[in-house]
Each structure stands twice: as C-alpha cells, then as structure tokens.
Specification:
This protein is α/β, with parallel strands linked by helices. Helix content is 41%, strand content 14%. Helix 2 crosses helix 3.
C-alpha cells in the first residue's frame, strides 16, 4: 500500500513519478530500482519501466537487471548508434546481457534513408519488434494537443498494434485492437 500511495493514479493505471530534478538521480542505485520493480511486479499484473536514455544511471542499470522482457527504442540517426556502441561495450557486456534478449523498436522510421533495413540485425544485433514510422508534424501536434500519436497515421497505428501484440503475447494475454465503426455518409454529413 505504501508503494501505491506514492503513485499517481488514472483509472486502473498507476504511475510512479520520476525524480523532480535530474541531480536526484544520483541517489538511486541499481539495488533500489530492482527492489521497486520487484515490489511492483508482486502488486500489479503488468509493470512497464521507462528507464530513460541515461545508461550511467541507477535507474537504467537496475531496470536492466530486474526486467525479464526488455525493449530498446532507437532511431536511424548516427548519434543514436554511437551512443548504443558505448552502452553495449560499457554496460551490456559488463552485465552479461545478451543482445538477442532485447527487442528493438525503431522510432521515427523513414524508409527513404538508405541501409536502415540492416539496423536490427547488423548494427544492434537484436530482434526487431517494430518500426514506428515518422509522421511529419504529428509529434508537434500530439504534444500541443496533449495526446498520443494513435489515430494520426494508419501505418503508425498498424506498427503500434503489432508492438502491443508482442508485449501482450509475452505476458500471456491476447490483444485484439478495437475496430473503428464505419460511418455512413449521412451520419458524417449531419454530425454536430
């Protein structure tokens, strides 16, 4: 109950807020994060950890140690690949985490950029989960409207549904997306 009382609740979703300032991250050691994740796993059906992109933090390392299903979000940018090379050599190898146990999510994917089909297998050496397409203007619009990208692009929604199916399958659930109701011409014309 103490853990739940520290969380923000929205319906059946419980969120443990992060630290208020980045400087406070230094107080969190991997063992603290592992303890919280294990505690949450005993309370909730599904626990999702956003470990951020600071591989030198206790949150990042603790999450790697305490989670069974791991995902890494990357883009096609060279800076992302360079950062990953450092993470691979200085953290993943030291912790003896096999890359094939991490699923790759390519974010803001653009099929016009050459040689990106090799990202999962040759660069990251991970199993590719999905490639969430770049939806020009949608990131700004979603932020402005304080909502997600779901529903803004059909290709994006298809990839997102695929990711949800993968996660649900790993957790022993089956996911079937809700089908949109087809509007007939008259209801669209007379919509208030």
């Amino acid at each position: 109950e103490e853990l739940k009382s520290a969380m923000v609740r929205k319906g059946n979703l419980f969120i443990l807020p992060s630290v208020r300032t980045l400087a406070d991250l230094r107080y969190y050691k991997p063992k603290h994060v592992e303890y919280l994740i294990n505690l949450a796993t005993g309370i909730f059906d599904i626990v999702i950890v956003d470990a951020g992109y600071y591989p030198n933090s206790g949150l990042y390392i603790g999450a790697l140690n305490a989670t069974k299903h791991r995902y890494m979000v990357a883009t096609q940018q060279e800076s992302c690949r360079s950062c990953f090379e450092i993470t691979r050599s200085q953290i993943l190898k030291v912790l003896e985490i096999d890359l094939d146990t991490i699923m790759l999510i390519i974010n803001r994917y653009d099929d016009q950029i050459p040689n990106t089909y090799r990202l999962a297998g040759e660069v990251y050496k991970m199993v590719q989960a999905v490639s969430l397409p770049n939806v020009p203007g949608a990131f700004w619009q979603a932020e402005e409207q304080r909502k997600t990208l779901r529903g803004m692009d059909e290709a994006y929604d298809m990839q997102l549904n695929g990711l949800i199916r993968i996660i649900a399958g790993q957790l022993g659930f089956e996911y079937q997306p809700k089908l949109k109701k087809k509007q007939n011409v008259f209801s669209a014309l007379f919509k208030k």
